[in-house]
Design goal:
five-stranded mixed β-sheet, 36 strands, four-stranded antiparallel β-sheet, 2 domains
């Protein structure tokens, strides 16, 4: 295909993806037919990278400028025989939702197609009455190579994904169980309130391998996932100029900003400017949970007052967009469905997960379909698969709940009993049908982590307490 034909077709097609960028500068720098780096000679004046993407069943090449133009030899637009590509326009996501054609879509992952899930790897902690080592959630890294968790009284741990799972399409039920060992262990004390990965974390680029954490009596801290070093701190101050701990923390979708949720304010830091330089936004209630939509302009702020506040970060001085007051307890976790105007919220001592449509916010879209058991005040995490087809959550009974979101008019639920204790954390691998779960809770009558105590719901039947991080396979299994 000739250069002029490629440019003319690209000029008419809008590709919605963050991974592909069109040339926005004039095409006057192009004077030779397209070439791949492999076929380029050393004396060439121009270099191009040509990623391929499927659009309407056709393979199109998109140009990515690498600025290798030889000095003093640039040509003007009048020297060219074709029209420059137009600059990329902002996305209109509402029109995109209503459109039947989807140019770029992540392939679906086959989750929960078997009756059982297979345990792949495990790590457990022992404790005592004074030092109870229960876990507090877990998060896969964006590239799927690492798993982050926090342990009460034992800091933060990073585990590596077992190597045989990187290319696995199916798993044998007889696969040996792996023992997980910490690749990085941050032995910092204090309660960890919240943590999150850098959104573009990639193990091949050490600069991106980091996560944010906020702890008791400490500022927001950025930790290195390679060596466990503290990279920098983002310090928020209260009205009397004292360092204040954030209750929740989040990156912006582009990774350029760090947002901390405090008792009376939201503080927005620039990621590349640590210290005490920030913009402050006043809020009415403590920010116990944060979530940003895919367009990165609206932030949802959960509160222990059982309400959710929506703020437009482009005009924060205009106040709240709206407030949602439907939960029975304090809001502990929030997640937006990517590419949709929908929000899912969960609260403490509230068995319902609620799905909200931001265009009709007065009532939740679904009120009784997403039910789990939450009988304590601790945060019970939930997660959404990368293809947006599955919602999963743990509960205080140690059960995994999985809901298929393909048909909201008849939501299908699958349950798996995986822990003897509270399943407080759950995270879906970004590329594989793999789950990670964490378990444990504070037991006031605990003398030893393996002491058996009566279960009131089972008429004296005893069961052990469990503080574990487990990786599960929930996809295809090999036939015997």
């Amino acid at each position: 295909m000739e250069t002029e034909e490629i440019v003319r077709k690209l000029d008419k097609i809008e590709i919605h993806t963050d991974q592909i960028s069109l040339v926005s500068s004039p095409i006057s720098e192009l004077s030779t037919p397209l070439e791949t780096p492999e076929t380029k000679n050393d004396d060439d004046k121009y270099r191009f990278k040509i990623p391929l993407v499927t659009v309407d069943n056709q393979l199109l090449a998109t140009l990515v400028e690498v600025s290798d133009v030889t000095p003093n030899e640039e040509k003007s637009d009048t020297d060219m025989n074709f029209t420059p590509i137009k600059e990329k326009q902002p996305h209109n996501y509402e029109e995109e939702m209503d459109c039947d054609t989807q140019e770029v879509k992540l392939p679906p992952i086959d989750f929960f197609i078997e009756k059982n899930v297979i345990e792949l790897a495990r790590s457990s902690w022992r404790g005592s009455t004074k030092n109870q080592r229960f876990l507090k959630g877990c998060l896969w890294s964006p590239d799927g190579t690492c798993l982050l968790t926090t342990v009460n009284g034992d800091g933060m741990h990073v585990f590596e994904t077992p190597r045989d799972l990187y290319e696995a399409e199916s798993i044998s039920p007889d696969r040996p169980l792996d023992c997980l060992n910490s690749a990085v262990h941050i032995k910092e004390g204090g309660i960890v309130y919240d943590y999150c990965w850098f959104p573009f974390m990639n193990s091949n680029d050490p600069a991106t391998c980091c996560w944010l954490a906020t702890r008791q009596n400490e500022p927001i801290q950025l930790w290195d996932a390679y060596y466990g070093d503290l990279r920098c701190s983002y310090r928020g101050y209260n009205a009397v100029d004292e360092v204040e701990s954030a209750l929740s923390v989040a990156f912006s979708n582009d990774g350029c900003e760090v947002i901390g949720g405090y008792k009376k304010t939201l503080k927005v830091f620039k990621t590349d400017v640590p210290g005490r330089d920030y913009n402050s936004i006043t809020i009415a209630s403590p920010a116990s949970a944060l979530a940003r939509n895919s367009e990165d302009n609206i932030i949802a702020v959960g509160s222990w007052s059982a309400n959710i506040t929506l703020l437009d970060l482009r005009e924060p001085n205009y106040g709240d967009i709206c407030q949602i007051n439907q939960h029975r307890g304090g809001v502990t976790y929030l997640r937006f469905l990517y590419g949709r105007n929908q929000l899912i919220s969960g609260a403490r001592k509230d068995n319902l997960l609620m799905l909200w449509d931001l265009r009709r916010i007065a009532e939740p879209v679904l009120t009784g379909q997403f039910t789990r058991t939450v009988s304590t005040n601790q945060r019970i995490y939930f997660d959404i698969s990368s293809d947006q087809n599955w919602l999963v959550s743990g509960d205080t009974s140690g059960i995994i709940h999985a809901w298929n979101l393909n048909d909201l008019s008849a939501v299908q639920e699958q349950t798996y009993s995986v822990h003897h204790d509270c399943c407080n954390g759950i995270s879906i691998h970004p590329d594989k049908p793999i789950l990670a779960t964490s378990s444990g809770q504070h037991h006031f009558d605990l003398n030893d982590i393996m002491q058996c105590v009566p279960d009131n719901n089972q008429n004296g039947i005893k069961k052990p307490r469990e503080n574990s991080l487990i990786i599960w396979w929930c996809g295809k299994t090999m036939s015997a």
